[in-house]
Hints:
Layout: H1 2-8, H2 10-15, E1 24-29, E2 42-47, H3 61-70, E3 88-93, H4 103-120, E4 122-127, H5 137-152, E5 156-160, E6 181-185, E7 189-192, E8 195-198, E9 215-217, E10 222-225, E11 235-238, H6 241-258, H7 264-273, H8 282-285, H9 292-295
Parallel strand pairs: 1-3, 1-4, 2-3, 4-5, 5-6, 6-9
Antiparallel strand pairs: 7-8, 10-11
Helix pairs in contact: 3-6, 4-5
Amino acid sequence: MNRVRKIVGADELHRKGIRGRGITAAVMDSGICYHPDYSDRVICFKDFVGNKEYFYDDASHGSHVTGILGGSGVMSAGKYCGIAPECDLVHLKVLDRNGAGRIEDAVAAMDWVLKNYEKYNIRVLNFSVGTMETGREADAVLLEAWVERVWDAGITVVVAAGNMGPRQGSITIPGTSPKVITVGFYDDAIREGKRMTEYYSGRGPTSRCVCKPELTAPGARVTSCSNLRTPGRYYTVKSGTSMATPVVSGAVCLLLSKEPGITNVEIKMKLKDSVDDLGLPRSRQGWGRLNLRKLLE
């Protein structure tokens, strides 16, 4: 995570006191544990899978994503600090222990957000999950419609492009929505041990010829919070667009903490104007790679 913060320019902003304070981000994922890096800032946990009231993460994905977005890094002396380490957090568990989820649970979670975003001051929704467009058309329409309802309420919705590339048209739903901010990752060929493993970020355009993703962020071998299933192991490493997405969500939290009156449409335009062009095709890099220094100038 320290590498990620350096790439996007978060450390400099943290030193200036821009750390996401006063902004709430909601995360739809597999749950969270009582991790010291963020447990004191989780103001609501809602379980749409098992209907449990206590924190838990039986897949580890949600804990990792949440740490990237808003972990304080307290258990690593700041080394694995997240992008917005002082933001408040709401977690909505919609994925089971296998990382699978039901459309109905995702819809119920977004309906809950629409009914409660003012109560909890939710300004950002991180959606690091998705399904392929080759699935049931009705499901695709339903998911896109609901993320757009959340967007239309004024919440900045940040969605993963998925890992189904490199072919064109491989953006996962609901990242196919033209309204939301869809995030890919640019460092999608990484070395694990002695072999090269490729994680292919979803590529546009969508079936409706919408250019996607909007932008990219670091997503390879990111160290962030574990689900504490192994005693004493506070951090773990994961890769994918699921990891790149909370980098952008955290960036949005920082921007909102500096400019609380800014709208989600204005945020999207600011992101467009502040990226680094990597010289890659539009279908792969979007506008370019996130640059926090430019975003918060």
